[in-house]
Amino acid sequence: MTPLVSIIMGSTSDMPVMEAAAKYLNDMQIPFEINALSAHRTPDLVAKFAEQAEGRGIKVIIAAAGGAAHLPGVIAASTVLPVIGVPIKGTMGMDGWDSVLSIISMPPGIPVATVGANAAQNAAILATQIMAVGDKAIRDKVADFKAKLANKITKANEDLAKIKYDYKTN
Protein backbone atom coordinates (compact mmCIF):
# COMPACT_ATOMS: atom_id res chain seq x y z
CA MET A 1 0.00 0.00 0.00
CA THR A 2 1.47 3.34 -1.08
CA PRO A 3 0.96 6.23 1.37
CA LEU A 4 -0.90 9.26 0.04
CA VAL A 5 -0.33 11.45 3.10
CA SER A 6 2.86 11.87 5.05
CA ILE A 7 2.66 12.93 8.69
CA ILE A 8 5.98 14.41 9.76
CA MET A 9 6.81 15.67 13.22
CA GLY A 10 9.87 17.29 14.66
CA SER A 11 10.03 14.82 17.52
CA THR A 12 8.14 11.78 18.77
CA SER A 13 6.96 13.94 21.67
CA ASP A 14 4.50 15.41 19.12
CA MET A 15 2.83 12.02 18.57
CA PRO A 16 0.11 12.46 21.23
CA VAL A 17 -1.12 15.48 19.22
CA MET A 18 -0.58 13.97 15.78
CA GLU A 19 -2.43 10.80 16.74
CA ALA A 20 -5.68 12.62 15.90
CA ALA A 21 -4.52 13.02 12.28
CA ALA A 22 -3.47 9.38 12.08
CA LYS A 23 -6.79 8.20 13.54
CA TYR A 24 -8.81 10.29 11.08
CA LEU A 25 -6.83 9.10 8.06
CA ASN A 26 -7.06 5.51 9.29
CA ASP A 27 -10.84 5.83 9.78
CA MET A 28 -11.11 7.28 6.25
CA GLN A 29 -9.01 4.39 4.91
CA ILE A 30 -6.42 6.77 3.46
CA PRO A 31 -2.92 5.22 3.40
CA PHE A 32 -0.42 7.33 5.32
CA GLU A 33 3.02 7.23 6.85
CA ILE A 34 4.39 8.75 10.05
CA ASN A 35 8.00 9.86 10.55
CA ALA A 36 10.02 12.08 12.84
CA LEU A 37 12.36 14.52 11.10
CA SER A 38 13.93 17.62 12.56
CA ALA A 39 14.63 20.76 10.56
CA HIS A 40 17.40 21.55 13.03
CA ARG A 41 18.85 18.14 13.93
CA THR A 42 18.46 16.34 10.57
CA PRO A 43 18.27 19.07 7.90
CA ASP A 44 19.75 16.87 5.16
CA LEU A 45 17.17 14.13 5.83
CA VAL A 46 14.35 16.70 5.76
CA ALA A 47 15.48 18.01 2.37
CA LYS A 48 15.86 14.48 0.98
CA PHE A 49 12.40 13.52 2.28
CA ALA A 50 10.77 16.62 0.75
CA GLU A 51 12.50 16.19 -2.60
CA GLN A 52 11.50 12.50 -2.86
CA ALA A 53 7.95 12.63 -1.43
CA GLU A 54 6.12 13.28 -4.70
CA GLY A 55 8.01 10.50 -6.50
CA ARG A 56 6.96 8.08 -3.75
CA GLY A 57 3.27 8.85 -4.35
CA ILE A 58 2.69 11.29 -1.50
CA LYS A 59 -0.07 13.81 -2.33
CA VAL A 60 -0.11 15.98 0.83
CA ILE A 61 2.34 16.47 3.69
CA ILE A 62 1.22 17.28 7.23
CA ALA A 63 4.15 18.71 9.17
CA ALA A 64 3.98 19.35 12.89
CA ALA A 65 6.45 21.41 14.84
CA GLY A 66 6.68 23.36 18.07
CA GLY A 67 8.74 26.29 19.21
CA ALA A 68 10.40 28.01 16.25
CA ALA A 69 8.48 25.52 14.04
CA HIS A 70 10.73 25.53 10.99
CA LEU A 71 9.87 22.01 9.79
CA PRO A 72 6.75 22.80 7.69
CA GLY A 73 8.47 25.68 5.92
CA VAL A 74 11.68 23.80 5.25
CA ILE A 75 9.65 20.97 3.72
CA ALA A 76 7.54 23.41 1.66
CA ALA A 77 10.71 24.99 0.30
CA SER A 78 11.82 21.67 -1.20
CA THR A 79 8.60 20.28 -2.72
CA VAL A 80 5.70 21.29 -4.94
CA LEU A 81 3.29 19.24 -2.81
CA PRO A 82 0.85 21.02 -0.49
CA VAL A 83 2.16 21.23 3.06
CA ILE A 84 -0.15 21.67 6.03
CA GLY A 85 1.51 22.94 9.20
CA VAL A 86 0.33 21.89 12.66
CA PRO A 87 1.69 24.22 15.33
CA ILE A 88 2.42 22.25 18.50
CA LYS A 89 1.87 23.84 21.88
CA GLY A 90 5.24 23.70 23.53
CA THR A 91 6.57 23.93 27.03
CA MET A 92 8.14 27.36 26.51
CA GLY A 93 5.17 29.19 28.02
CA MET A 94 3.86 30.74 24.79
CA ASP A 95 0.89 28.34 24.54
CA GLY A 96 1.73 27.49 20.93
CA TRP A 97 1.69 31.06 19.63
CA ASP A 98 5.39 30.89 18.81
CA SER A 99 4.67 27.90 16.56
CA VAL A 100 1.59 29.48 14.98
CA LEU A 101 3.46 32.67 14.16
CA SER A 102 6.45 30.77 12.78
CA ILE A 103 4.35 28.61 10.47
CA ILE A 104 2.08 31.37 9.15
CA SER A 105 4.99 33.73 8.53
CA MET A 106 6.30 32.06 5.38
CA PRO A 107 7.94 34.22 2.71
CA PRO A 108 6.21 34.77 -0.66
CA GLY A 109 6.38 31.70 -2.87
CA ILE A 110 6.65 29.16 -0.03
CA PRO A 111 3.10 28.75 1.30
CA VAL A 112 2.21 26.49 4.19
CA ALA A 113 -1.46 25.99 5.00
CA THR A 114 -1.75 26.27 8.77
CA VAL A 115 -4.32 24.92 11.18
CA GLY A 116 -4.76 25.87 14.81
CA ALA A 117 -2.37 24.84 17.55
CA ASN A 118 -2.60 21.08 18.17
CA ALA A 119 -5.35 20.81 15.51
CA ALA A 120 -3.98 17.64 13.91
CA GLN A 121 -7.42 16.29 12.98
CA ASN A 122 -8.20 19.49 11.04
CA ALA A 123 -4.92 19.06 9.18
CA ALA A 124 -5.93 15.53 8.18
CA ILE A 125 -9.40 16.70 7.13
CA LEU A 126 -7.83 19.45 5.01
CA ALA A 127 -5.44 16.90 3.46
CA THR A 128 -8.39 14.71 2.43
CA GLN A 129 -10.26 17.72 1.06
CA ILE A 130 -7.24 18.63 -1.07
CA MET A 131 -7.02 15.08 -2.43
CA ALA A 132 -10.80 14.96 -2.93
CA VAL A 133 -10.51 17.51 -5.74
CA GLY A 134 -9.14 14.80 -8.02
CA ASP A 135 -10.47 11.63 -6.37
CA LYS A 136 -14.21 10.92 -6.22
CA ALA A 137 -13.82 8.07 -3.72
CA ILE A 138 -12.04 10.38 -1.26
CA ARG A 139 -14.54 13.14 -2.01
CA ASP A 140 -17.41 10.80 -1.09
CA LYS A 141 -15.68 9.87 2.19
CA VAL A 142 -15.22 13.54 3.08
CA ALA A 143 -18.86 14.30 2.21
CA ASP A 144 -19.99 11.40 4.41
CA PHE A 145 -17.80 12.63 7.29
CA LYS A 146 -19.26 16.14 7.00
CA ALA A 147 -22.82 14.77 6.88
CA LYS A 148 -22.13 12.86 10.10
CA LEU A 149 -20.93 16.09 11.72
CA ALA A 150 -24.21 17.78 10.77
CA ASN A 151 -26.20 14.82 12.08
CA LYS A 152 -24.41 15.07 15.45
CA ILE A 153 -25.58 18.68 15.82
CA THR A 154 -29.14 17.83 14.79
CA LYS A 155 -29.18 15.02 17.38
CA ALA A 156 -27.67 17.34 20.00
CA ASN A 157 -30.48 19.85 19.47
CA GLU A 158 -33.08 17.08 19.76
CA ASP A 159 -31.51 16.05 23.07
CA LEU A 160 -31.34 19.66 24.28
CA ALA A 161 -35.04 20.11 23.47
CA LYS A 162 -35.85 17.34 25.97
CA ILE A 163 -34.18 19.20 28.84
CA LYS A 164 -36.78 21.05 30.88
CA TYR A 165 -36.43 24.26 32.88
CA ASP A 166 -39.19 26.46 34.20
CA TYR A 167 -38.15 29.37 32.01
CA LYS A 168 -36.68 27.54 29.02
CA THR A 169 -38.63 28.51 25.92
CA ASN A 170 -37.56 25.85 23.41
What can you see in these coordinates?
By secondary structure, the protein is an alpha/beta fold. Helix content is about 45%, strand content about 15%. It contains 6 helices and 5 strands; from the N terminus they run E-H-E-H-E-H-E-H-E-H-H. The chain has helices at about 15-25, 45-55, 70-75, 95-105, 120-130, 135-160; strands spanning about 5-10, 30-35, 60-65, 85-90, 115. Strands 2-1-3-4-5 form a 5-stranded parallel sheet, with helices on both faces. Helix 2 (about 45-55) crosses helix 3 (about 70-75) and helix 5 crosses helix 6 (about 135-160). The protein is globular. The N and C termini lie far apart (about 50 Å).
Give a short overview.
This protein has 6 helices and 5 strands. The protein is an alpha/beta fold.
How many strands? 5
The main β sheet shows up as: 5 strands, parallel
Instruction: List the total number of helices.
Output: 6
Rounded to the nearest angstrom, the radius of gyration is: 18 Å
Helix content class: 40-55%
Mean pLDDT comes to 95
Give me the side-by-side strand order of the main sheet: 2-1-3-4-5
- What would you call the structural class? alpha/beta
Termini gap: 51 Å
Dominant shape: globular
Strand content: 5-15%
Order of helices and strands: EHEHEHEHEHH
Low-confidence stretches: none
Features:
globular, five-stranded parallel beta sheet, alpha/beta, 170 residues
SSE layout:
Elements: E1 5-9, H1 15-27, E2 32-36, H2 43-53, E3 60-66, H3 71-77, E4 83-88, H4 97-104, E5 113-114, H5 120-132, H6 136-161
Helix pairs in contact: 1-5, 2-3, 5-6
